[in-house]
Amino acid sequence: MAEKELQIGQLVYSRAGRDQGRPFLVWDYLSDTMVAVVDGDLRKVESPKKKNIKHLKAMPAIAEEIARKKLAGVRIFNHEVRKALKDLGAIPEQ
């Protein structure tokens, strides 16, 4: 990848667009400069958001369970993505 190597399940924050500041998990690689991201709320696993990696701020945290399931081809539900974001501290507990 052009800037930093992103991993499936890695926590990222949007730097640009209407979703600026919103946390996401990297869902898939689309090209050298584009990835798909999900948050389990506005961007569900059924319709991930395409984002240029230049518009993402990568964090060192990775949702290991999501990454493991995704790479194994196991179905992942939106509530699991939301829980992973909460566990990583990206979404405050309500």
Automatic annotation (TrEMBL):
A Gene Ontology cellular-component term: ribosome
Keywords in alphabetical order: Ribonucleoprotein, Ribosomal protein
CDD domains (UniProt xref): KOW_RPL14
Coiled coil (UniProt feature): none
Protein name: Ribosomal protein L14E/L6E/L27E
